Amino acid sequence: MKMHMLNKRRIFRKGILSNRAAGHTAATVSISILSALLKAMATVACIIVAVFFIIRIVPGDPVKMILGEHASPSEIIQMRHSLGLDLPLGQQFVRFLHHLFMYGDTGTSIIYNVSTRTLIAERTPVTLLLIVMAIAITIVVAVLLAMIAATHKDGLVDHLIRIFPTITLGMPVFWVGLLLILVFGVWLHWFPVGGTSGGLFGTLYSLTLPAITVAFSQIPSLVRSLRAQLLDVLGSDFVVTLKAAGIPNRVILFRHVLRNASIPTLMLLGVNVSYLIGGTLVIEQVFGLKGIGSLLFSAISSRDFPVIQGIALYCAVAVVLINLFIEILSGYLDPRLKGDD
Amino acid sequence: MSNHRTISKKGIIATALALILLLSGCAAGQNAGSKKAIKGGTLTYGRPASVTSFDLFKEITSNNAFAIDKVFEPLVSFDKNGKVINWLAKSYKVSSDGLTYTFVLRDGLKFSNGKPVTARDAAFSIKHHLSAGGPLAIEAKVDSVIANNKQTLVIKLKKPFTPFLAQLANFSNGIIPYNFDGKSEKQFFKKPIGTGPFAVEKWNPAGDLTFKKNTYYWQKGKPYIDKLVFKTISDDTQAVNQLKSGEVDAIESVPLENAKALSQGSDTKIQTDGSWVTEQVFFNTLDKNLSDVHVRRALALAINRDGLTKAVTFGYAKTAHSLLPTTITYNSDASVKALNYNVAAAKKELAKSTHPKGFTTTLLIASGNSAVKQEAQIIQAAGKAIGIHIKIQSVELATFRERFFAYNYSMMINSGQADFPDADSILAFQTDPKGFSKSYWTHYTNNTVTKLLYAGEQTADGPKRAKIYAQMQQILANEVPYIPLYYPDIVIGHRSSVKGLVVLPNGSVRFEDAYVK
To answer: Contacts of residue A70 in chain B, CB cutoff 8 Å?
Structure first.
């Protein structure tokens, strides 16, 4: 990661970003995309196998969770049989793969008796909206704070902004969520305490506090990185040249400095997306949101194998695709990275 | 049901409040308070888990049970004191030999689709439950179930089984239309039709559930509310916050640390009453150390149960002395000679054992419940005081069950709960070494206790039966296969504007008298 950053910085300074990309042959690009794709598929395959076996090796039986403590062994045996849980693991795995490739589904939920695909599809909009809102808030706030800090280097504002990440990084994200709920939900009644309600606008409104909470955990590292990038670019030769040419500071800042500095920051954000997804899962629980995260939580505690597998697969594919996208994008933006491979 | 919350003892204020609410909310009688009741509106009830099935014959966990009982109703039911009362049957008669039960259905009973309810429907339902078995299977040896005419159902038993009537009060003996109203079983339970106060309007097994009022309900003019929404809020703190902000009208799961604040809030109240639960420490009597009765007695004497109850339940529980909770008839909590806190006596008792100098053992608990964790720590300290070193093993619920089902534990904290209002429910599950639960996985075996258990099942209600259960509870208190710690209360939180909720000792709530002011 550091090596990549250094390379990028060097390139940005020289301002030769797009010229180098044109020099690359189409063949090299497609081969590298192909190898990235293959790697991604291998990763997903490993995840499928690992999740299938890990969740079955861990102690705990979905049937006993459904039937409780008062079910007789014959009841348990009967239900295990009807769910196919009494088959040898290998056979269960073959069945699972067959189902996955035939129907694109990891099976029917043991607890809800609904196909996993339906469950995930139902829950995706909330989670997706939350992630998008969180990213949007993160970018807006981080860019703003970083710009203020960079333009007031070593001033009071800069110091305050630099202290901010130190404090917030020490706050557990669920705690921040609870605090926001208490202040803005319970006391001030500005936002709903939890859940989502009524149409797109209602949903967006209900997701405001959770999105701020998720953003809160992402902003600090981004501010820090972006501020450093901005300062770096601000001190570079081309900025000095622009200044000498009499171009106004505001234009230099927005049109040249921010643009150059934001690319590595966006890369960092991209890398952080997996953490962001993880954070979202916890936050859904705190805010009582019916998204993928809360589904995963209940699925794990009740050992709902098909749902756990489905969500793991879904999240894995999402993260792998995002990483693949970033890899391809970074190759496109910074041709030198291809040389590193 | 099996979703046991650690609940607790009510304080004077809470009791007074509950009484006022019960009186104003017409909890005691079905007709009381109807003058004041406001009709219409929606009541939203926050619950920790979604309703995944309405199949009354196959379900047991509280998330489903407390939704099933809104749609399906049995011939007899129980009141808030656990007393068996007429429900769909306007009367019942038990023959003197205890073998024949005759039920007469109420006049003009209808299902939520408007079709009349007949004894044929009732016979079909009971017969189907007998063949389906399920986690709440009918334990009586039933000889025949016959609909004598449209309103009369006669059930004959092969041998007397006194708990039968109480068992029939269970939601699993609810009445469904004959032959699933002509649908397949699976189809029927997707759109269930029953006689209960509510019918399913919209249901997401992984989300929320909306009931609409059953306009054919047999209690005239009820329910008052038009809609009842079960909103799934898995996080307790989130549920409390939604109650405080008014996003829900009531919540099922109140963390005990929040109960007092809710009861004193300007917009919130709690309702609390005794439950059918006994929180206990269980001993694996096959364990090399705990098979010694003196060791178990020593531990019972070493634990300050009063102190423990006060420390972990915030006043929403009663200290337990006998196995049966005080809400169950024939409990001997007041009369049993229990091994009460006495460290000197505990040390003497241990000295009589095969481990006079103490030993090291483990205490298994399910994680995620702060009260249980505290209990474990108190028990650990009590053991240490007499030389028994207890290591606490905290595992996730699913793993916890796997462990004790396999007898892979030495000591554990768990709660025993009656499924129906009869002493036999808890006693059979916790003392019968021949039952699948093997005396609640303690493997406790005592022939006298087993004989008394069977005798109690066949003895008609009265002083003779009372004597049998008093004797059983005394033997259990002496031999300590488990230490009863406390009887937790049911605690339901609601907005001050909500009136008429009736909290039942199994944790369910009756909404037919409820309304929002």
So the answer is: 2, 60, 135-136, 419, 429, 437
Task: Give the one of A66, A178, A195 whose C-beta lies nearest to B247's C-beta.
Answer: A195
- CATH class, domain B32-72+196-268+491-517, is alpha beta
Q: Note whether B267 contacts A: Cβ–Cβ < 8 A.
A: no
Between CA A285 and CA A295 the distance in angstroms is: 9
The architecture (CATH level 2) of B73-183 comes to 3-Layer(aba) Sandwich (3.40)
First to last CA, chain A: 13
- HEC profile of A14-38: HCCHHHHHHHCCHHHHHHHHHHHHH
Find residue B103's DSSP bridge partners.
B92, B153
pLDDT of chain B, 517 residues: tens digit per residue: 444 433 343 444 444 444 343 333 333 334 444 457 899 999 999 999 999 999 999 988 899 999 999 999 999 999 878 889 999 999 999 999 999 999 999 999 999 999 999 999 999 999 999 999 888 999 999 999 999 999 999 999 999 999 999 999 999 999 999 999 999 999 999 999 999 999 999 999 999 999 999 999 999 999 999 999 999 998 888 999 999 999 999 999 899 989 999 999 999 999 999 999 999 999 999 999 999 999 999 999 999 999 999 999 999 999 999 999 999 999 999 999 999 999 999 999 999 999 999 999 999 999 988 889 999 999 999 999 999 999 999 998 888 988 998 899 999 999 999 999 999 999 999 999 888 888 999 999 999 999 999 999 999 999 999 999 999 999 999 999 999 999 999 999 999 999 999 999 999 999 999 999 8
Classify burial at A334, counting beta carbons within 10 Å of its beta carbon; exposed 0-12, middle 13-18, buried 19 or more.
Answer: buried
Give which of B63, B66, B232, B241 to mutate to test A binding, by max A Cβ within 10 Å: B241
Q: Do A182 and B232 touch (CB under 8 A)?
A: no
Give Cα separations from B237 to A204, A294, B244, B397 (angstroms). Answer: 22, 15, 11, 20
Sign of CA dihedral A320, A326, A331, A332: positive
What does DSSP say about strands B388-395 and B359-366: parallel, antiparallel, or unpaired? parallel
Contact B135/A114, CB-based, under 8 Å?
no
Amino acid at A229: Q
Q: Which of B52, B60, B245 sits opposite A185 (nearest CB)?
A: B245
Fold agreement (B32-72+196-268+491-517, B73-183): yes
C-alpha span between B485 and B475 (Å, rounded):
17
Q: Is B205 on the interface with A (CB under 8 A)?
A: yes
B181: DSSP letter: G
Helix H or strand E segment including B70: helix B62-71
**Residues within 8 A of A (CB atoms), B 417-436 only:** 419, 429, 436
The CA distance from B440 to the nearest CA of chain A, in Å, is: 9
Domain parsing of chain B, residue ranges: 32-72+196-268+491-517, 73-183, 277-488
Q: What is the CATH number of domain B277-488?
A: 3.10.105.10
